[in-house]
Amino acid sequence: MVGCRLFILFCLLSVAWTAHAREPPAAPQDKTDSGSSSQHSNIVRNVLDLFNMTGTKQTKTFQPLTQSERNHLYFRSMVNPLSFARVAASAGLDQARDKPDEWEQGASGYGKRVANIFGQYSISRTATYGLGSLLHEDNRYFNSGKQQFWPRIGYALASGVLARRDDGRRRFSISQAGGVAAGAFLARTWLPASQSSMEDAATSFGITTGTNVGFGVVKEFLPDMVRPFVKKRKQKSTP
Question: Measured between alpha carbons, how far is residue 24 from residues 15, 32, 44, 130, 143 in Å?
Answer without folding.
Answer: 18, 13, 12, 35, 22
